[in-house]
Amino acid sequence: MNVIYVDELFFLNALTDYLLLLSCARLRGRALRRTRFAAAAALGGVYAVFAAIPPLSFLVSLAVKALVSLLMAWIAFGAPPELWRGWGCFLALSSAFAGAVYGISLLSGAAVRRIVRQRQNERGSKERSESARLREQDARAGERVEKRVAGVPQRLQRNGFAAKLDLRFHDAALAAL
To answer: pLDDT for 75-84, tens place per residue?
Structure first.
C-alpha cells in the first residue's frame, strides 16, 4: 500500500501550478499578479488532495480536470478574452511539463523499475504459493517412494533396479497427484 502525505501532495501541486501560471504569464508578456496566481495554485493543490481520496475518484475524469483548470485560469487571468488565452497557455505548458517529467522518468528507468517491481510482487505471491504447493507434493511423493524402496532386497539395489524403481514410483506418485 502506498502512503501519500497530504501536506506534501498539496504543496508540491500548488508550487507546480504556481510556477506554471507564472511561466504562462511571462511567456505571454502579461502583468504578474502573484496573489491571484497563488490563489489559483492553492485551488490546484486542494484539487490534487481531493482527487487522491479513493471515494472521490470521479474527480480524476477529464471533464472535472478541464473544469478545475478553467477555474484556475479564471482566478489567475481574469475574465475573457484573457481567460481563454491564459487557459490555453496553461494547458499547453502543463502538457509540456507532464511530458518532460514522464520522459525523464523513462530515461532514468524509475517508472520501468516501479512497474517491474509491481509485477514481480504480483507474480511472486502467486509463484510462492504455487512453488510451496509443488514442494509439498514432491515431499509427499518422496515419502511414498522411500517407503516402497525400503522393502527392495539388497541384491536388486546393487543391480540398479532400485534406482529405476524409485524413478518409476516417483513419476507415478507425481502423476497421481
So the answer is: 999 888 889 9
Residue 39 predicted with pLDDT over 80:
yes
Confidence of residue 121 (pLDDT cuts 50, 70, 90): confident
Contact in structure between 17 and 44 (CB atoms under 8 Å):
yes
Averaged over 17-45, what is the pLDDT? Answer: 93
Give me the amino acid identity at 12: L
Torsion sign, CA atoms 44, 46, 48, 54: negative
The string of DSSP codes covering 123-164 is: HHHHHHHHHHHHHHHHHHHHHHHHHHHHTS-HHHHHTTHHHH
Query: If pLDDT is split at 50, 70 and 90, which confidence band does 124 have?
Result: low
**37-41 long-range CB contacts below 8 Å, 24 or more apart?**
37/76, 39/75, 39/76, 40/72, 40/73, 40/75, 40/76, 41/14, 41/15, 41/17, 41/72
Distance CA 49, CA 8 (A): 10
Distance CA 152, CA 157 (A): 7
- What H or E segment, with its residue span, contains residue 54? none
pLDDT for 22 beyond 60: yes
The residue among 63, 23, 29 whose CA lies nearest residue 41 is: 23
